[in-house]
Design goal:
The structure holds two protein chains of two kinds. Chain A is 56% helix and 8% strand. Chain A is α+β, with helices and mostly antiparallel strands. In chain A, helix 1 (14-25) packs parallel to helix 3, helix 7 packs across helix 8 (182-193) and helix 7 packs across helix 10 (204-219). Chain A is globular and about 55 Å long. Chain A has a four-stranded mixed sheet with strand order 2-1-3-4, with helices on one face. Chain B is α+β, with helices and mostly antiparallel strands. Helices cover 60% and strands 8% of the residues of chain B. Chain B has a four-stranded mixed sheet, with helices on one face. In chain B, strand 1 (5-9), helix 1 and strand 2 form a beta-alpha-beta unit. In chain B, helix 4 (89-115) runs parallel beside helix 7 and helix 7 packs across helix 11 (202-216). The longest helix of chain B is centred in the middle third of the chain and has 27 residues, at 89-115. Classes of the chains: A alpha+beta, B alpha+beta. Chains A and B meet through strand 4, helix 3 and helix 4 of A and strand 4, helix 3 and helix 4 of B.
Chain lengths: 225, 219
């Protein structure tokens, strides 16, 4: 087809995973280029994303697209099989709303409790649980946020879908449990066991080890939250 | 509230203005309901339980929240008139990127200009102007961010123009001196009825900001 598709990403980035899952779901062949986000940014990354200097970057026939939610919409518009956005404008608006909610509120809220000082933790946990509760309501008993199949919101929420439980395992801090958020907890199992998702998640042991490493670096003052 | 379009809004909100512009561009008739944000109505809390914020667009009784989500919804439902997003997917992605940039950068850096003083304010001004210059770079020699035609990024950004006077007064600087091309673009947008009718009066916005500063205890 003469198409060139490349993804510049980081293996443990939930944002990179968004782009990867969308392409894999649609069966789009691509070349993956690993960026070491903990080290120096490569000249190519700085060239393709001069404004934010971040992964992921999707390169399609030499043209860069950046910002993971923008990338998801682009992928859905170019490769029309297995749509990740609903057809009806109202349902589309709802999906966009929840994806934005996840980025603006959920991500910072569920990330914070693992990295904040002791005296701020209780409040951080409360805010994180408030977000998880809202997500549980948004799921509304469905199998996936997208309904019977995974969609934009499921892909966007992959941090809760996969990474969160790995952080919980390493730190012992439990935000999401089957008791507190039964539907959302069940969704994480559905998510990680989805036929395409499970082939493309970071290897669990590698992720657990990586969590331990960055927590240790944080505690030693080598990196900031 | 079945049928028809309702907008829950607050007159100085740049986010509400985006939706007003989009509705005006498409010549959609709607009911505007002013909200008192210090005393949130049951309607607002019912229509936006997650964020409890304006603007809320209600269409056929169903609420849509988040201004850029609303603008895209309007563009998709009333697609036969005044398209805001381009047809080409790459251009659409570029437009979404810059609208997202406006969302991530403009409100926060603008707020820091009026909320701070001294060194902090100087840093805020620098960041604010820096963001505007990046936007100027993207505009280039085009009439609008949408190219020859007014589009999505123009809608996302132009409401901030009516806040510039307030920022300038608080920060004691001239945005036009730093970013003349951007001001020229804004004035060009103001020639459009949809924009002129949707933006608040800059003097009124400044008056509102002074009240807000008082309420926050900022001099």
């Amino acid at each position: 087809m003469g198409e060139e598709v490349k993804v510049f990403g980081f293996w443990s980035s939930p944002y990179t995973l968004r782009a990867v899952l969308a392409l894999r779901l649609k069966g789009v062949p691509y070349e993956y280029v690993e960026e070491n986000v903990l080290g120096n940014k490569s000249p190519l990354l700085l060239k393709y994303n001069p404004i934010h200097k971040k992964v992921p970057v999707l390169l399609h026939n030499g043209k860069p697209i950046v910002e993971s939610l923008v990338i998801l919409e682009y992928i859905d518009e170019i490769w029309k099989s297995k749509p990740i956005l609903p057809k009806h404008p109202y349902d589309k608006a709802m999906a966009r709303f929840w994806a934005k909610f996840f980025d603006d509120k959920c991500m910072p809220a569920v990330w914070k409790p693992f990295w904040c000082p002791e005296d701020e933790r209780e409040k951080a946990v409360e805010e994180a649980c408030q977000c998880l509760k809202t997500l549980e309501t948004a799921l509304n008993g469905k199998r996936f946020f997208g309904g019977e199949e995974i969609g934009l919101v499921d892909i966007a929420a992959n941090f809760v879908g996969f990474f969160l439980r790995t952080m919980q395992e390493v730190t012992g801090l439990e935000l999401l449990s089957a008791e507190k958020f039964p539907h959302l907890f069940k969704w994480t199992d559905e998510f990680v066991n989805h036929s395409v998702v499970k082939e493309n998640l970071p290897p669990r042991d590698k992720q657990l080890e990586f969590n331990r490493v960055i927590i240790a670096k944080y505690e030693a003052g080598e990196i900031k939250a | 509230m079945e049928g028809g379009v309702v907008l829950l809004d607050f007159w100085p909100s740049m986010f509400g203005m985006r939706v007003r512009i989009a509705l005006a561009e498409k010549e959609i008739k709607y009911e505007y309901i002013e909200q008192d944000l210090r005393n949130k109505s049951d309607l607002l809390l019912q229509m936006n339980p997650v964020h409890k914020k304006i603007p809320v667009l209600v269409h056929n009784g169903k609420p849509i929240c988040e201004s850029l989500v609303q603008v895209q919804y309007i563009d998709e439902v009333w697609k036969n008139q005044a398209p805001l997003l381009p047809a080409d997917p790459y251009k659409r992605a570029t437009a979404r990127f810059w609208a997202d940039f406006v969302d991530k950068k403009m409100y926060d850096s603008g707020s820091r200009v009026w909320k701070t003083k001294g060194e902090e304010q100087e840093a805020a001004k620098k960041e604010f102007i820096g963001n505007l210059k990046l936007l100027e770079g993207e505009l280039g020699d085009n009439l609008y961010f949408g190219g020859d035609g007014f589009g999505y990024v123009d809608v996302a950004l132009v409401p901030f123009y009516c806040w510039f006077y307030a920022y300038e007064q608080c920060g004691n600087f001239s945005i036009e001196a730093e970013c003349p091309k951007l001001i020229a673009w804004a004035k060009r947008c103001m020639q459009k009825e949809s924009v002129a009718k949707s933006l608040a009066d800059p003097e009124k916005v400044y008056g509102f900001l002074l009240q807000l500063k008082k309420a926050y205890g900022i001099e």
